[in-house]
Specification:
The complex is a heterodimer of chains A (about 350) and B (about 260). With about 350 residues, chain A is mainly alpha-helical. Chain A is built from 16 helices and five strands. Chain A has two domains: about 5-235, no CATH class; about 245-335, no CATH class. Helices cover about 55% and strands about 5% of the residues of chain A. In chain A, strand 4 and strand 5 (about 315) form a beta hairpin. In chain A, about 50% of the residues are buried. Chain B has an eight-stranded mixed β-sheet. Chain B is of the alpha+beta class. In chain B, strand 6 (about 80-90) and strand 7 form a beta hairpin. Chain B has a single domain (about 1-230), classed as Immunoglobulin-like, CATH 2.60.40.10. The chains are: A mainly alpha (about 350), B alpha+beta (about 260). At the A-B interface, strand 1 and helix 10 of A face strand 16 and helix 3 of B.
Chain lengths: ~350, ~260
Amino acid sequence: MNTLKNLTVLRRFVQLFMFVFLVYGSTVVGFYAADKLSGALPSLSCAYDSMNADYCALIPLQHQFHHRLGPAVDSGDYLKLLLPVGTTIVTFLMMFVLLNKAFCGWVCPLGFFQEVMGLIGQKLGLRQVKSLSHGAVDKVRPIKWLMLGGLVFGLPALTSLGFLSDEWGDPFCQICPSRILTTLFTGSDEQLFVDISTPSYMVLSILGDFLFGLVIAMSMTLRQPFCRICPLLAMHAVFRKMGFVRLVKKGSSRCDKCGLCAEACPMDIKELQTDHNATDKAKDITLPDCTLCGRCVEFCPDKDVLQIRYLNIPVFSATPQYFKRRKKAQTQWEKVKLIGFDHSLAKPVKVK
Amino acid sequence: MSKYLPSLLLFVTTSSVANIYWQPVEQTHSSGHGRQAKQFQLMGEQPEFSSVIEFIHSDLVSAPLDKKNSIVTLKPTGKDSYHALVARQKSDNFQSLAVRYIYNNGRPVSTSPSDLLAVELGGLQIIPSPLPREHWRYESLKTYNFNVILDGAPLADHPLLATTTLGSNKVVHTDDEGRVQLFTPEDFPEIVPLKRATPAAELQMFSAVEKDGVTYEASLTTAYHASETSWKSVSLGAGVALAGIVFGFVINRRLPEHSRRKVK
């Protein structure tokens, strides 16, 4: 079997296609908001990108809370808020149920960009941090909920109610790395700016630019650094039980000592190894941080312990044969380096 | 070019004085989200011709409008997206068209602004290509494209006069396919560094042509705003992003290695 025939390679092609489509797809779907696929895409595709095919659900949600909550409270007519928010959520769900959290692992332009930067880092011979420690993962996990609750709903709501100035109406968009990334890919540097008009705008724009740079650098060493704190990942987590695509596990006692799945996981989900190890029936293990990339299934050496199912029909299952081939392909791939940086310059801290 | 000399002369001699065009009436207050009634005044009307006014909604439903002292009042349609305010003056040998595209907030409609722009209004038309979309607006120091058509066909190598209410003037010409690019001037006398702080000015585009003994005139007007480059620095932004990259590499060096998952 050709070592390039594996799920990850297939996923990369899908990601590349989706990146091109979402960043440049206005020529296909049309230019205006009315022409977009949904206007509530479950991936970080940005409306500031003048050539995009669709834009993410977080944009209308922030706008709706910013512009509708205050008037709704003033008038007592909460339908002013609930109708547009409901429309956005329903539109989001109509797409989301089809692919579930695979919108992160297979569709998101920023997710793909981080994976490409990771590949570049690896090929340049930069030190690769395979996984974060359990403690670090536990500390990082709540951030995505704070981002969703604070930046997408909280601050726009407070702005609408008059507690904050207008600058805080769409704070997530103002710090989102995808805004800068996708507009740069269309040849426009307009979104990479420091706004000196007010202190709030200045803080937000500096945060956004700095975060963008941070994501570029960190994704060359650490897998998916921004995905771990992405508010859309948190929103996916809320609705993940409604998705047709699921990751399921029927573990055994061997899982306790193995952990290859957790090691393969770019999001460092340790529960992949520890949960559902003594069960007769496959159980849903599409956890809040999962992006349904399928790497855990690829690197599981035991037959059918991990599966990706669509409407409960297995579409990709772990097998020993596939595992051996995949492991070999990964080893060969990691040997290929364009430049070997001197690792002694880096000072990794060993964790006990 | 010679065939357009008469129209060029006509154009230069008539300029904006003869063309009809729309101009917003100063509002004393605003509710902020485009739901208030808007008023526009039809300027340059020739008294010997009557004016016909039409308001094309974003879903392409057309409604006639009456004016009072050359002023029309547009009430919210409840429909989202761009609408077109159209005025016509017409006789046997004269056709004048004034168009202004106006954004309304409301319920979504199934039609696109592309459909609105494709509505054939007859005679000479200046059509934005495209209209600003979400998070965009007409601004100084940017290039915008327009198409000029006469009875549906592109009008090649034809002059347009672009003026602003702040005093700038520029003549631009269409290319072989009737397209024209306009780089908007930065002519705001005083720019307050905040998105909506500097009052918008008006960008007006005029054109005229004579064909088969009929004189056609067209105008397109829109608000334009001070360039955000006055308070947004791309070079500073790039510098901050670079600092983020450097900081990221510093963090990378300190990230602990943790190569195999372990059971707690």
